[in-house]
UniProtKB/TrEMBL annotation, chain A:
HAMAP family: CheD
Reactions catalysed: L-glutaminyl-[protein] + H2O = L-glutamyl-[protein] + NH4(+)
Enzyme class, spelled out: hydrolase
Name of the protein: Probable chemoreceptor glutamine deamidase CheD
From TrEMBL, chain B:
EC number: 3.-.-.-
The name this protein goes by in its record: CheY-P phosphatase CheC
One Pfam match: CheC
Keywords recorded for this protein, A-Z: Chemotaxis, Hydrolase
Matching SUPFAM superfamilies: CheC-like
Top-rank EC class of the record's enzyme: hydrolase
Entry superkingdom: Bacteria
Annotated ranges, domain CheC-like protein: 11-46, 114-144
Amino acid sequence: MSQAIVIGISDYKLAKGPEVLVTYALGSCVGVCLYDKVTKLGGLSHIMLPDSTNFSNKDINRKKFADTAIVDLVDEMKRAGCGNNRIVAKIAGGAQMFEVQPGSKLGAIGERNILCVKQVLSQLRIPILAEDTGLNFGRTQYFDLATGVMKIQSLNRRIEEF
Amino acid sequence: MFENYDELNEMQIDMLREIGNIGAGNAATALATILDEKVDMSVPSVRITGFDEAVANLGGAETMTVAVLVNFSGDAHGMIMFLLNVEDAKSIMDILVGEDDGEEGLSEMKISGIKEIGNILASSYVNAISALTGLTIEVSVPYVAIDMVGALMSVPIIEFGAIGDKLMFIEENFLGETNDLKSNMIMFAEINTLKTIMQKLGLEI
């Protein structure tokens, strides 16, 4: 296996099996894996914020927000030959890293990221096959494009495969 | 007039470095008092970096780190993070308690001690800025977590990285002389807060 392709914060990449994609140390951000098992094409998107519409008057980085990044990645996958109804998703992240007081906006962002990712996927009719989200710890997310398996590594848990 | 962190000019960055110097100087004095040892402080660096670079500069995304987070609000809005590795956190608490309990890792008691130290340092930092500028700044209760530094940093990155693709923070390293303890203090502030502080200090923006 060659070295994994690294996806940074507010970025996504598209690749083909047997490549492996990885994004390190997701906290409140959400990593979205999209996959078409027929073509073995897939993408990983490291989403930082839920909704770009509050920032629409600025030049925004479309790879930062759930509502723009996922739509763009799906478009790219389709242009690369992924079947319309074959794309599936696996998601991870959206943790609450610090135990803040209830009602603090700091605590809610992970959850809002997860909700928005789910909404966008549902609008695009992309099923979520697996998720490892929420709670209070960081996750490194690997996505094996040969198999479509998502692997999650954390500091105090065993490696889990989804 | 700047709207993004990467539009700050040299003079403005110099002023931020001076603010870091004053804030962290106060925090270093507090740390020296707590540890009862001499604490050296680096020249503060004002960093304007991409998100990944900010994390890479802290030892790499997956490095296990103890972080104390404090929010400030009122006339100025921002966040202070106090970061150190688990071994140094343990050593600091051993110094304070006066013995090494021989335990692996950090007990609940030690974590809560580190949280309180982070709180004192962040408050000292903010008080210095407040005294300098005359701004009324309130400090939240401290929050503590131990995890991958990249995951911990996602919190300020999300908070201060919404507009633009750059993050601005003022960073200081503290070095305890006798016991070689290293820690790191990072201050993030909203763009509007930077403007307010600069105006208060008489800098044209």
